[in-house]
UniProtKB/TrEMBL annotation:
Keywords: Hydrolase, Signal. One of its GO terms (biological process) is carbohydrate metabolic process. This is Cell wall glycosyl hydrolase YteR. It comes from Aspergillus mulundensis. It comes from the Eukaryota. The keyword Hydrolase applies. InterPro entries: 6-hairpin_glycosidase_sf, 6hp_glycosidase-like_sf, Glyco_hydro_88, PolySaccharide_Degr_Enz. Residues 1-25 form the signal peptide. The keyword Signal applies. It holds the Pfam family Glyco_hydro_88. Gene3D superfamilies: 1.50.10.10. One of its GO terms (molecular function) is hydrolase activity.
Length: 401
């Protein structure tokens, strides 16, 4: 980790202290997953406020997803913050914002990511306010505009579909269906796979075997490929959201990986292999613009790299990926994880952790040029990065256990 604060001694002391305090004699330091989750809660992040931050809902949703994973994992015992009351505050900060399906369609698809925390709160309290918001989110998918192929618009831009939105769709729709209308589960699977198929068809990059950021079905955007409508660059976090959503979705179907699900299992392997091919040999992690490795201005990005570590380790743990001598996913993920810790995790004097190196928003409402992607500002302690790091850490801790 990078000791960027002045009082390194104190930081070392804090480390030692946490080792003694929580190790109970077993020399176990508090794991990064729990420490980073506590740090996000102590910073008061992942609570939606009135700011015009366009990723506000996604910050809430992605952190709640990481936190709920964490409480199910062995690392949960190391959490120090009162995560249940935090989750309740976090859910309450969005429940009134998403309870109108018509209005929901004015938010990016990212809005759906908050459904997981709302469902948790509903099941815990039975309070119908949460159920109303869940129903509104569900209905908002049916109201969401679609392009000529039936692809969901990501946001207000006519006929544009992005990889990014799939994390939220995949994390919400199957969950909602299994909770409230299990008889709809096969039609839910079909409609989700249909969205994935459209993105694969339009965004597949034959040069890298990865997927471009998104496509414009009308092919009129300045960046649109005249044949496919795709944007020209493979943006790390768009693919990161897509891969995380895909591995979480396949986890729900491990015993039925045939037919269309089998095809998507195959595509998951193909994307994972392509990630091994594009990993930066020098650092062991991945570039902000994946199809321009080493190009001037390009850099190793911390949120997308964490999403890939999560995806690869979880893929192996679930048996979706199998290490071979040629494609050793765990070796690559392990090295990438060490790079994340060394380069991007900062120890603060108060014992909290910070996370650096996460790019802010990259929108297709832009030139979508190489210069655009590499000049978007980094955001220190972005929840989009730290939540991804928590999920990567959970998988890493399971792998090491
Ligand atoms: C249900 O939850 C909402 C949102 O937190 C809250 O405003 C309301 O008071 C709760 N209702 C009950 C009966 O607890
Ligand atoms: C939901 O939002 C729409 C559009 O803003 C508005 O017309 C409608 O009255 C709202 N519905 C409720 C129940 O508030
Ligand atoms: C979006 O697609 C629809 C259906 O194909 C088409 O009628 C409309 O003109 C498109 N909108 C734009 C802005 O290209
Ligand atoms: C169940 O599926 C049908 C057909 O796709 C759809 O119209 C309906 O809204 C779904 N119900 C729920 C609760 O998701
Ligand atoms: C990629 O290859 C597929 C199948 O070979 C082809 O249909 C598609 O048009 C190609 N895409 C591009 C952007 O060249
Ligand atoms: C993959 O790497 C791990 C260590 O990172 C090693 O234990 C394992 O044997 C390797 N698997 C194969 C098939 O080479
Ligand atoms: C975060 O990383 C950037 C790029 O390496 C560096 O310039 C900056 O000083 C770091 N920020 C902090 C607060 O450490
Ligand atoms: C899209 O970009 C244009 C030009 O920068 C800007 O005026 C507009 O507000 C953006 N749209 C959204 C929804 O942010």
């Amino acid at each position: 980790m990078a000791f960027q604060r002045p009082l390194q001694l104190l930081t070392c002391f804090t480390l030692l202290f946490s080792r003694i305090k929580l190790g109970n004699g077993a020399a176990t330091a508090r794991p990064y997953s729990a420490r980073m989750a506590d740090s996000v809660m102590l910073r008061g992040q992942a609570i939606h406020d009135d700011s015009s931050d366009s990723s506000g809902l996604l910050q809430v949703g992605t952190f709640q997803t990481a936190l709920l994973d964490l409480v199910e994992s062995p690392s949960a015992q190391y959490l120090e913050q009162d995560w249940e009351s935090f989750l309740s505050r976090s859910a309450d900060s969005v429940v009134g914002l998403v309870d109108n399906a018509t209005q929901d369609t004015q938010f990016p698809l990212d809005r759906l990511s908050v459904g997981k925390g709302l469902l948790y709160q509903y099941e815990r309290t039975g309070n119908e306010t949460y159920k109303d918001a869940l129903d509104a989110l569900r209905l908002s998918i049916d109201l969401q505009p679609r392009n000529q192929y039936g692809g969901l618009w990501y946001y207000v831009y006519p006929n544009w579909s992005y990889l990014d939105g799939m994390f939220s769709l995949l994390s919400f729709l199957p969950l909602y269906t299994s909770a409230f209308s299990p008889s709809n589960s096969s039609s839910t699977t079909d409609s989700v796979l249909y969205q994935l198929d459209l993105l694969w068809t339009h965004c597949h990059d034959n040069a890298t075997d990865l997927l471009f950021h998104g496509y414009d079905a009308s092919k009129t955007a300045v960046w649109a490929d005249p044949v496919t409508g795709a944007s020209p660059y493979v943006w790390i976090r768009a693919l990161g959201w897509f891969m995380m959503g895909l591995v979480d979705f396949l986890e729900l179907h491990l015993t039925e990986l045939e037919g269309r699900l089998g095809i998507w299992h195959g595509r998951f392997i193909s994307l994972s292999n392509a990630l091994l091919d594009t990993v930066d040999e020098g650092s062991g992690a991945w570039w902000q613009v994946l199809n321009a490795p080493g190009r001037e201005g390009n850099y190793i990005e911390s949120s997308g790299s964490a999403m890939f570590v999560y995806t690869l380790l979880k893929g192996v743990r679930l048996g979706l990926l199998e290490d071979t001598v040629k494609n050793n996913y765990t070796t690559v993920a392990e090295r990438a994880y060490q790079t994340l810790v060394e380069r991007f995790v900062d120890e603060n004097e108060d014992g909290t952790l910070s996370y650096n190196g996460t790019v802010g928003v990259c929108s297709l409402n832009s030139t979508a040029s190489y210069e655009y992607y590499v000049n978007q500002p980094l955001v220190y302690d972005s929840v989009l990065g730290s939540a991804a790091f928590i999920r990567a850490s959970i998988e890493h801790e399971l792998y090491k256990a």
